[in-house]
Design goal:
CATH class of the largest domain: Alpha Beta
Largest sheet: 5 strands, antiparallel
Helix content: 55-70%
CATH topology of the largest domain: Alpha-Beta Plaits
Low-confidence stretches: 170-176
Distance between the termini: 114 Å
CATH superfamily of the largest domain: Ribosomal protein L10, N-terminal RNA-binding domain
Strand order of the largest sheet: 2-3-1-4-5
Number of domains: 2
CATH architecture of the largest domain: 2-Layer Sandwich
Radius of gyration: 28 Å
Order of helices and strands: HEHEHEHEEHH
Length: about 180
């Protein structure tokens, strides 16, 4: 039986993990076995850039936190080396970042499972979420789609105006020498 100090520290960690899971829009549980320090550093940098909170967690403590949030179905995945990637704002970011690294590291880094909006999601869903571009890219695509007809209209009007100016100048130039 652990002493009171150790027990209270573990309870605080479980409470913090529970709060993190409740606040997050989505998360991914990962087996990170075999990655190098350089690969881990690159992963953490990309996670920070995408506002993804990534941390190595103890299986037992994560199990208690998952049970506190109603994600008991993920208990079976908690064996071996485990890390957790969650994001409060962007539900797609954890899947996109972690899936990208899983492809780069080919076998050293494996997604075990995930959740979104308090529900467990399948690997198929995680993979489809990973294929969605980042939010700024999506916003740019939508804006580009909205502006395309307006830009096209502006180009057509400009071409018509240039054609009319070119056509109007030619007869005036020919008519001027005849008047003299």
């Amino acid at each position: 039986m652990p002493n009171a100090k150790v027990l209270s520290e573990k309870q605080a960690i479980v409470a913090a993990l529970t709060e993190k899971l409740q606040k997050s829009a989505a998360g991914v549980i990962v087996d990170y076995k075999g990655i190098t320090v350089a690969e881990d550093t690159a992963l953490r940098r990309e996670c920070r850039e995408n506002e993804v909170d990534y941390a190595v967690v103890k299986n037992t403590l994560l199990r208690f936190a998952l049970n506190n949030t109603g994600l008991n179905e993920l208990d079976d995945l908690l064996n071996g080396t485990t890390s957790l990637a969650v994001c409060e704002n962007d539900p797609v970011a954890p899947a996109r970042v972690i899936s990208g690294f899983a492809k780069k590291l080919d076998g050293k880094f494996e997604i075990k499972g995930g959740f979104m909006d308090g529900k467990v999601i399948s690997m198929e869903t995680i993979n489809s979420l990973a294929s969605i571009p980042a939010l700024p890219v999506l916003q740019a695509q939508v804006l580009g789609t909205m502006l395309a007809p307006i830009s096209g209209l502006a180009c057509v009007i400009k071409q018509i105006a240039e054609k009319m100016e070119g056509g109007a100048e030619a007869p005036a130039a020919e008519a001027a020498p005849a008047a003299e």
